[in-house]
Amino acid sequence: MAFPQLARSLIRQRDWSILVDLLVFAVIVAGIYAVMATVRYWMGVATPHVHISRSPAALPVYAFYSLVRMAVAYLLSLVFAVSYGYIAANNRRVEMVMIAVLDILQSIPVLSFLPPVMLSIVALFPTRQVGVELGSIVLIFTGQVWNMAFSFYSSLKSIPRELREAAAINRFSAMQRFIELELPFGTIGLVWNSIVSVAGGWFFLMACEMFVLGNHDFRLPGLGSYLQTAASAGDTAGILWGLGAMVAVIVLIDQLIWRPAIAWSEKFKIEQVESASEVNSPILHLLRNSDVSRWVQKRAVGPLRERLTTRAPGATAVPASRTGNRGRIVGLAVLLALAVIVPYLLVKAALLLKGLNAAELVATLRAAGASFGRVAASLAIASLWAIPAGVAIGSNPRLAKIAQPLAQIAASVPATALFPVVLLGLVRLGGGLGVGSIVLMLLGTQWYVLFNVIAGATAIPTELREAASVFRFTRWQRWRTLVLPGIFPYLVTGLVTASGGAWNASIVAEYFHFQGKTMSTLGLGAQISAATDSGNSEQLLVSTIVMAMLVVSVNRLVWRPMYRLAESRFRLDS
Amino acid sequence: MTPTAEAIIQARAIEKFYGPPEARIQVLAATDLAVYPGEILALLGPSGSGKSTMLRMLSGLASPSSGEVLWHGRPVVGPCPNVSIVFQSFALFPWLTVLDNVEAPLKARGIGEPERMKRALRILDSVGLDGFEQAYPKELSGGMKQRVGFARALVVEPEVLFMDEPFSALDVLTAENLRSELLELWEGKKMPTRAVFIVTHNIEEAVTLADRVVVLGKNPGHVRTDFRVAMQRPRDRQDPPFHEAVDYIYRVLTQPDLVPTPQPEPEAVPAAGAARAKYPMMPHARPGGIAGLLELLADREGRDEIHHLADDLAFEIDDLLPIVEAASLLGFIHVKEGYAELTPEGQRFADAGILRRKELFRVAAERVPLIRQINRALANKADHSMPADFFHDLLDEHFSEEEAERQLETAVTWGRYAELFDRDSSGRFFIPEEAPQTAGDEVGSR
């Protein structure tokens, strides 16, 4: 120990550790206070007409309220997704049904639920603020839970057979299997899907916070409502402050939560060799080296894991056949209940739809056509600029270094937060919502196309590029034989996600309360919003069904064949 | 070591089949097999003979479709009470340290912390992993990983140790090293295990390790031969008895129809009811591989021992056998008594240039039922094309879905080489425009 360098480095490490510990304590104290404040606010009396301050000083509090909503919704989603995926993957009897349900729920535009969900939850807690808050949380939840559930399910299904067998032959208890095999295996998928989900969650949260229904005003104090209020008043400084706060929050979450989470999840990679490129996160490094986290690990996590994974002495494994019986009874009961409830609901729905006349139906179909056209137009415009831009960025590492972070920040601002701002511009320019709503859809969807194209262009092997230059391909030939086929699978993925997003956006984009007026245009989304505004439930039902059917059939008829093509003909890896 | 009276694990007429009853696909025909205390039993066979299925049924991981597995005379439900498995892919939990990996089976048995750690450390020590307790599997080399695999399997002191091709993911030297260490543990009674059951496709490995070798045949899996190897250990590969045993196994494996004549000190039980598949299976070999084999044989005066060929090419039987089978199916070679011999056709092929070879292959491929069937169907259609599903349906009656697809893939590889037919990206089979129509017409008019 005679080396001075070594001693110095040891001291430095100690210093860091104390600082981090202090920081962690501060965070904990702040957290406790925040929970108390939130509870007091939530349990407070509902304010019928929320006054949203436009002062920048109010922004931290608003950002905090928005964050709490996100966090609660996300935790709910996580718990639900893990349970749903676990049950579906481990019970062959219900697996098919559960996955089919997931598939359908995933394709229904969540925002069409917004009005009824809001109304019913608020009705549950008529006097407490918690009603409105819960409504928004449930909505974010429905928007972000499905892909997480699906990811966890498919992770569990793709556990290598030999790992499963290793657990089986050693007769792991269900709990030990879950903690030492299934949960770790699903973690990477969960982390990445969480990031996608939370981004989607911001989109819905912004919509929820500015929700006005007929004479009810459900505005929630938060970033979304701040932005809308500022835009409504034409307050440019306020808009800029709001957008700045939004970007700051999203960047902070990325740095403080997602990057450490990704770096941590590297541990769960299944590949048996050490990989060269690793995401590193200084935050994670600090946390790992803090005494507090070590204490938690040793005193709480360790013993808890020990209790959960070690079978109680004396307890023996129950042969699989005995548990099967109980499962069958439960399954049968669920099936029976469904057999009663589903037809009942179907009949009720049919009765409701009987009240609809032909003219209304025709109107719905025309509206569907209009929205469909808008979705298609927004996809076309997005492709038109994002494909060349994405290819340029993806094939030029130097450009990518500058452009990608910028694009990421731009994309991270939820489109719904920008709606009021764009509307303000539209109003000033004197444009209508018919074309304007395409712009609104574009706001959210173009990024999916861009990022996927960038990823696709980066994935084109250098050798193929070089071959194209050696053979002196013309520009057109280069695009046709190299670039377009190369990015095709990525482009399809981007377009599918974008079309889903566009449909969702249509509900907010085609019908908007702004500056005390209702702006709207012909479209399915407008019809859904209008129907809820006027309490016309048959119209709401038929519009939602039409939209869901449209989305599902487009998925089947257009995207699935494209996917198949992408997987068979345009694969680069074989 | 001779088997003492009572078997630890006894399989009685176990069978395995998949699919619905009316169109079931048999993987393993009714088979009896027992594991006795004091023996190392090696299960050999080509791929598709149900070796792994057999291991999984005997260890209780999978249950047989019919028949029963007895553990000390009692029927088994779920995994056998006291066995463990060493896996081909190691199957370590990558997020657990070496120590945690080895402790995991003990946790499942409800053994508490101090005792668990003591036992895990002891076993890690005995497999030479001292000092690696806190490492993660991905930081270890393949050989070290498999040592962890052994430690995890042995830490529960299993009565029967199952091993599923434990050395086949390792390089030759590492495998050799681990094999001898395993024998050391076994011979020195340093492990409390009473029997070892090893699945392998490496013939020399089987003869090096085992007291008893069981060879499986395929379509469906059945026992071809079951004999004892009574040589002293350590065994020398250069010893004549070693050679004889290896040769004997090669002869059994390369001649599917041969009912093995009992060879070195046999207790051979020729398999009862070696059921044959109704539909001949195409061996999964590429035309290039077949051509390579023929050239090699031509270099050696047209005749060589298959055992030799495998040695010289450093091929394991799973690599070489499909090629040998394919060449013999095409009538290019004769396989007899473990020898492969070029036929006149094969000699002509070996001597020919690229285009002539294609012609010879085209004529020879007519002997293969699946190729003939595809060709005839295509030739008889006006537009010379057919959806893949048509042929899939044809094969689905005889093979699992996966195998049917592999069959078609191999057929396409052969058909392409012979310029008989092709398959487009949507999976449709067709006769290419520039294909020599004579081939198709010939077939069509037959």
Furnish the topology, listing elements before pairings.
The complex is a heterodimer of chains A (574) and B (446).
Chain A (H helix, E strand, L loop, with lengths): L3 H39 L16 H32 L1 H16 L6 H11 L5 H28 L3 H9 L4 H36 L2 E2 L2 E2 L5 H10 L3 H30 L16 H7 L2 H19 L10 H35 L3 H38 L1 H16 L2 H15 L3 H27 L2 H9 L4 H35 L1 E4 L2 E4 L3 H10 L3 H32 L6
Helix pairs in contact in A: 2-3, 2-5, 2-7, 3-5, 4-5, 5-7, 7-9, 8-9, 8-15, 9-10, 13-14, 13-16, 13-18, 13-19, 13-20, 15-16, 16-18, 18-19, 18-20, 19-20
Chain B lengths: L8 E10 L6 E11 L4 E5 L6 H8 L7 E6 L2 E2 L7 E4 L11 H11 L4 H14 L15 H13 L5 E5 L7 H16 L7 E6 L2 H7 L2 E6 L4 E7 L11 H15 L32 H13 L3 E3 H8 L3 H13 L3 E4 L2 E4 L1 H8 L2 H12 L3 H12 L4 E2 L1 H9 L4 H17 L4 E2 L5 E2 L6 H9 L1
Parallel strand pairs in B: 3-8, 3-9, 6-7, 7-8
Antiparallel strand pairs in B: 1-2, 1-4, 4-5, 9-10, 11-13, 12-13, 14-16, 15-16
Helix pairs in contact in B: 2-3, 2-4, 3-4, 6-7, 8-10, 8-11, 11-12, 13-16, 14-15
Folded structure, characterized:
The complex is a heterodimer of chains A (574) and B (446). Chain A is mainly alpha-helical and 574 residues long. Chain A has helices at residues 4-42, 59-90, 92-107, 114-124, 130-157, 161-169, 174-209, 223-232, 236-265, 282-288, 291-309, 320-354, 358-395, 397-412, 415-429, 433-459, 462-470, 475-509, 524-533, 537-568; strands at residues 212-213, 216-217, 511-514, 517-520. Chain A is 79% helix and 2% strand. A two-stranded antiparallel ribbon of chain A has the order 1-2. Chain A has a two-stranded antiparallel sheet with strand order 3-4. Chain A is globular, with a radius of gyration of 26 Å. Chain B has 446 residues and is of the alpha/beta class. Chain B folds into 3 domains: 9-254, P-loop containing nucleotide triphosphate hydrolases (Rossmann fold); 279-365, Orthogonal Bundle (Arc Repressor Mutant, subunit A); 368-446. Chain B has 16 helices and 16 strands. Chain B has helices at residues 51-58, 98-108, 113-126, 142-154, 172-187, 203-209, 240-254, 287-299, 306-313, 317-329, 344-351, 354-365, 369-380, 388-396, 401-417, 437-445, and strands at 9-18, 25-35, 40-44, 66-71, 74-75, 83-86, 160-164, 195-200, 212-217, 222-228, 303-305, 333-336, 339-342, 385-386, 422-423, 429-430. A 6-stranded mixed sheet of chain B has the order 6-7-8-3-9-10, with helices on both faces. Chain B has a 4-stranded antiparallel sheet with strand order 2-1-4-5, covered by helices on one side. The model of chain B is unreliable at 261-277 and 437-446 (pLDDT under 50).
